[in-house]
Structure prediction request, 208 residues.
Amino acid sequence: MSTHEIKVERREDGGKGASRRLRHAAKIPAIVYGGGIDPVNIQLDHEKVWLASQNEWFYSSILDLNLDGQVQKVLLRDMQRHPYRQLIMHLDFQRVNENEAIRASVPVHMVNVDTSPAGKTAGVVVTQELNEIEVLCLPGKLPENIEVDLGNMNVGDTVHMSDVVFPEGVQPATPIDESHNPAIAVARHARVEAADDAEEGAEGDKAE
Prediction:
């Protein structure tokens, strides 16, 4: 697991007025809670956090918040964005205990699509049906992403969650059974996909 450290500062003033002043100073108001410790109001540098927020790891990895040299391991639990400006309004972080299992959503990466039988067949489209999976694991086992190997995928195949090889110590938060086994990827001819889309559109028109 990679380490991602973010430096923060303690925030003494609360309230909407104080938060507005922070944003005008290119800072982000935030809070850290959980772990059996009182919540702490903090502030972060907007530019650095904005750059970090362009990466998947910011949303799905354990982050090291460095407050005056003291590091706390946290997960990002909520981000409030401005409705139309490139501005992060507020962040919520939850402390994690390295000995307690956590639930977190992890991005899904499809690999070896181009070398698969389906990927090498003209006119076939491989679509990703699920972008992330909620997993249950200890913080130290949390993966930045889950790779789904589609190297053996053939035309007409559907890869389900039950086909995914999860890293050691990681399991889906919702058990896989007959009622919960969502599709991860589907390989089908483009003309079939287009026909399905047209059919869905027609059904929508009838509903109106």
The first strand starts at residue 4 and ends at 10. Residues 190-207 form the longest helix (18 residues). The helical segments are 15-24, 46-52, 57-60, 190-207. The CA atoms of residues 116 and 153 lie 6 Å apart.
